[in-house]
Amino acid sequence: MENLVDQNLFSGVYKGKRVLVTGHTGFKGSWMCYWLTKMGAEVCGYSTPAPSDPAHIDKIDLNIRSVIGDIRNQEKLDEVFADFKPEVVFHMAAQPLVRLSYKEPDETFETNVIGSLRVYEACRKTESVESIITITTDKVYENHEWDWGYRENDRLGGKDPYSASKAAMEIMTNSYRHSYFNLEKYGTDHQVLMATVRAGNVIGGGDWALDRLIPDIVEASIAGNPVSIRSPYSTRPWQHVLEPISGYLMIGQKLIEKETKFGEAYNFGPSVTEDVNVEEVLITLKKYWDKIDYKIERPDVVLHEAGLLKLDCTKAYRNLGWTPVWNVDSALKYTILWYKEYYEEKDIQTEKDLNTYISDAKEKGLAWTKS
Ligand SMILES: NC(=O)c1ccc[n+]([C@@H]2O[C@H](COP(=O)([O-])OP(=O)(O)OC[C@H]3O[C@@H](n4cnc5c(N)ncnc54)[C@H](O)[C@@H]3O)[C@@H](O)[C@H]2O)c1
């Protein structure tokens, strides 16, 4: 791997920084920890065991301190925080699946709301903590099924337990931001800045979670049981996992640099022109890996699709200069080639994908690639 430490990405703020990541055994968390360590951060992960088998974290060479624990366990969290003394906390641990949240609302609310409360309490007791970045979702917005994107100051909502738990967690975060980490008392009574970062569904190599289109298609194609696609015209804002992570790292950088205006909510999503439907996704995947197999069952009548939600990312663009690096074709290409290499060659492309992503971002002149 190219030496990212010398490249001074994100102005080099992560070099030697003590960063605690909750949910490090998960899909996004493992990519996040990988990138952080390559920039010289000292990382401690805190999480329940990997939610899938196989799991991305077991496939990559990750030099971090890994603690297996539940975020609802205050005592254990406090111990780990007191011992590791993090300066930055990326809080990602969650029950992240909408379908499962219908079956297990208790677990979902407990983990996503009470678990987050426990993380914030651990932060409150730990003097070293200066920056808290909590990963939420585009689903926190009350969905009006508009054609235009949601902005950070739109009303929060959520009809299913997952969305509601994440919206509730945002409201709780706001109460911490006012009650304990109030900006007016920043630098005198406390030294903590808090941000929430909202992104939509992401894709990328190493995701084996249930009910996600690409992992499902890959598994079925490998097993020789092509899945039937009943909603070929559904569109989703597809985005590679490295895109929101570059946004989270940018917000982290600004908080580390004590720029108070970034202690707020930020959206990170693909450009609004990047919507493609499921059938187009499948055609693209097959273009890059001909083993991909599926059957399309075309509906007689194409109904309006409920629930499509887009993010307006103007705030991230204007305040941070953040934009996505890859278009949807590249996001799909790097995702499916990751699985192809894994299943056909037993080779892991995480390092290569990260290097390509960074060099493409440099070519585009993105702010986080400059010192
Ligand atoms: N993947 C997406 O498309 C997507 C989209 C929007 C938001 N998010 C958010 O991003 C974050 C990461 O999601 P992901 O896709 O990596 O999911 P994931 O299921 O792969 O990872 C979730 C992580 O949280 C951990 N975890 C779950 N319950 C826990 C508990 N009680 N205590 C400690 N750890 C616990 C799991 O072990 C795992 O490490 C979540 O907050 C999720 O809501 C993900």
Proportion of beta-strand residues: 5-15%
What spatial form do the alpha-carbon principal axes imply? Answer: globular
| Major beta sheet summary | 7 strands, parallel
Helix coverage percent:
25-40%
Record field, number of beta strands: 11
Q: What ligands does this structure carry?
A: nicotinamide-adenine-dinucleotide
Q: Roughly how many Å apart are the termini?
A: 20 Å
Structural class, please?
alpha/beta
Low-confidence stretches: none
- Helix count, per DSSP? 11
Return Rg in Å: 20 Å
Strand order of the largest sheet: 3-2-1-4-5-6-9
Task: Walk me through what this model shows.
This protein is α/β, with parallel strands linked by helices and 371 residues long. The two termini are 20 Å apart. The protein has one domain: Rossmann fold. The strands form three sheets. It has a seven-stranded parallel beta sheet, with helices on both faces. It contains eleven helices and eleven strands. Bound molecules: nicotinamide-adenine-dinucleotide.
Salient structural properties:
single chain; 371 residues; alpha/beta; Rossmann fold; seven-stranded parallel β-sheet; two-stranded parallel sheet; 11 strands; 39% helix; globular; binds nicotinamide-adenine-dinucleotide
Task: Describe the SSE topology.
Layout lengths: L17 E5 L4 H12 L3 E6 L17 E4 L5 H11 L3 E4 L6 H6 L1 H20 L6 E5 L25 H19 L13 E7 L13 H11 L3 E3 L5 E2 L5 H15 L8 E4 L7 E2 H11 L5 E3 L17 H7 L7 H18 L4 H14 L8
Helix pairs in contact: 2-4, 4-5, 8-10
The structure holds nicotinamide-adenine-dinucleotide.
